[in-house]
Amino acid sequence: MDFRFAALSARLLERVDDLGGELARRVHAAEAELAVVPPDDLAAVCAEQLRLSLTHLSGGTEISTASTEANARRRAERGVPLAALLHSYRVGTQFLWECFVAEAGDDEHAILIASASEMWLGLDLMSEAIRTAYREVEAERDQRARRDRDVLFDALLGTDPVRIRQSADALGLPHRGRFHVIAAEVTAGLPAAAVWRYLPTERLAVLSLQENAAFPALTGGRYGVSPAYEQISQTAAALRLARLALAAGAEGVSHYGDRPVATLVASSLETADDLARRVLGRLLDLPVDDRDALLATAYTWFAEGGSTALTAQALFCHRNTVRYRLGRVKELTGRSVDHPRQAAELFLALETVYVRR
């Protein structure tokens, strides 16, 4: 930096408090959104920011953005728009340039042009510090709002009727109406109109719909949906059913009751696992490829309504292969797909295996 520019900066630094007051008046006139800031506060900040810039330009310490960030946080928390604060700093930089022009003698004007980039670089650094501070404040605000919403959501699942009603009011939910609870995997999206809750292993939502409104489309993941219920105090019970629908469902949306057997399995997985092991027996002890081929064939046979031809088509194999594999299933489990009770036991065991997957 040119030593003559540094000397010019030092001369302005001697009058920084007066300059700060003048800058505050100019900023107040140029940016109406800063009217919420008390005049003394605005003047103090203007003087401080000028002091930092002039100290740097006069050859002092490297420019620091710490106080700029602190000021930006205060303004963000007070509700000053980001654009308004950035504009005020541009006004300040323009004011500082005018001060340099007015202070410089005829023989110093040339050095202003040569050194101007230092001043505009300072504006860039401060502007980035302001944007960073606003992003942090916004993130903190969102986090607080989410924590507050989570507390209210959890209260809906409690047993205190007063707290349930109070939470519903705070969340914008009616006490009576048509509700659904949605349980979804963590990567799934939820309807914008729903009141939602993020958990480490799932996403939950309470959806309030008008009486004749269609259920919204849900895409991009796995969802379990409770039956409709009428009173907000029934949300905890509906959540259990939504979770069962999610556990029982495949890809896409599963409404409670769509897959009764899979839902029954999901409601008592420990018991279902034990019974599946007893039903499938030696089949589960086969090498992985053989085991999976037999399981897939039997499961597909049930899914295709007991049609050997459709099962062969779905598995890209010959019908005789399907018959052979079903025979192997009977040999290993002692149960035939042609016997109603034995077929029911096989189907329940297969549903358990596939719900687990």
Looking at this protein, list some descriptive labels.
RsbRD_N_dom, PucR family transcriptional regulator, Globin-like, 6 strands, 357 residues, PucR_C-HTH_dom, Arc Repressor Mutant, subunit A, alpha+beta, 64% helix
Structural summary, described in words:
With 357 residues, the protein is of the alpha+beta class. It has three domains: 3-140, Globin-like (Orthogonal Bundle), CATH 1.10.490; 165-258, no CATH class; 268-356, Arc Repressor Mutant, subunit A (Orthogonal Bundle). The protein contains 14 helices and six strands. The chain starts with a helix and ends with a helix. The mean pLDDT is 90. Residues 294-351 form the PucR C-terminal helix-turn-helix domain. This is PucR family transcriptional regulator. Residues 19-149 form the RsbT co-antagonist protein RsbRD N-terminal domain. InterPro entries: CdaR-like_regulators, PucR_C-HTH_dom, PucR_C-HTH_sf, RsbRD_N_dom.
> Number of helix segments?
14
Whole-number average pLDDT?
90
Sheet of most strands: 6 strands, mixed
CATH architecture classification name of the largest domain = Orthogonal Bundle
Query: Would you list the SSEs in sequence order as H and E?
Result: HHHHHHHEEEEEHEHHHHHH
- Which geometry do the CA atoms define? elongated
Beta-strand portion reads: 5-15%
> What is the total tally of β strands?
6
Low-confidence stretches: none
**What is the rounded distance between the termini?**
68 Å
Decide which structural class fits the backbone.
alpha+beta
Radius of gyration: 35 Å
CATH topology of the largest domain: Globin-like
